[in-house]
Design a protein that fits this description.
The complex is a heterodimer of chains A (112) and B (113). By secondary structure, chain A is mostly beta strands. Chain A is built from no helices and eleven strands. Chain A is globular and about 45 Å long. Chain B has 113 residues and is mostly beta strands. Classes of the chains: A mainly beta (112), B mainly beta (113).
Chain lengths: 112, 113
């Protein structure tokens, strides 16, 4: 089992819709969870982080964490074509707050 | 500049050669990280510095890889006897003291022929 799993996609949503991106992780000791956006040919850009169970909202983005189910998700409201990118989920390795393990990413396409 | 900078942006070398990749973190950031990313994969952790010392080098794949950060700012990743399998984008990230968030630079694309 991969340590961090994401559906590779591609995920297509129409402009204005809600895009839902999901991630599961294998180690219950993980405490820090991050979502990065990566445009083709560019480096990852941090868009959200969450450390506690529940929801965290920042503008059009909401991160949701459920540690009991070992599940973290990212919702993008009012999706725009400029949101089209690969979204990477990252989780800290237990015992190391700073070593991140990344999923392979979900490719999102927002159709105009 | 405001962000992490990395040089060179591209490096092409021949198998067996030595390469150095440089990272200049965000000003004031004490934590510095190296990752590498292969096509279609997420970044893979290599090493983490807190100040001048390597706090975690468990991701370095073998002894051909080495990194330094002598003055607690700029870091250099050194790869000896490069192999074709070393071809990847090498990403550097930095973070503020006491914070877990990591901010990536633009990366160095290394191609070993």
């Amino acid at each position: 089992q991969k340590e961090v799993e994401q559906n590779s996609g591609p995920l297509s949503v129409p402009e204005g819709a809600i895009a839902s991106l999901n991630c599961t992780y294998s180690d219950r000791g993980s405490q820090s969870f991050f979502w990065y956006r990566q445009y083709s040919g560019k480096s990852p850009e941090l868009i959200m982080f969450i450390y506690s169970n529940g929801d965290k909202e920042d503008g059009r983005f909401t991160a949701q964490l459920n540690k009991a189910s070992q599940y973290v998700s990212l919702l993008i409201r009012d999706s725009q074509p400029s949101d089209s990118a690969t979204y990477l989920c990252a989780v800290n390795r237990p015992g190391s707050a700073r070593q991140l393990t990344f999923g392979s990413g979900t490719q999102l396409t927002v159709l105009p | 500049g405001a962000g992490v900078s990395q040089t060179p942006s591209n490096k092409v070398t021949e198998k067996g050669k030595y390469v150095e990749l440089r990272c200049d973190p965000i000003s004031g950031h004490t934590a510095l990280y190296w990752y590498r990313q292969s096509l279609g994969q997420g970044p893979e952790f290599l090493i983490y510095f807190q100040g001048t010392g390597a706090a975690d080098d468990s991701g370095l794949p073998n002894d051909r890889f080495f990194a330094v950060r002598p003055e607690g700012s700029v870091s250099t990743l050194k790869i000896q006897r490069t192999e074709r399998g070393d071809s990847a984008v090498y990403l550097c990230a930095s973070g503020a003291s006491g914070k877990n968030e990591q901010f990536f630079g633009p990366g160095t694309r290394l191609t070993v022929l």
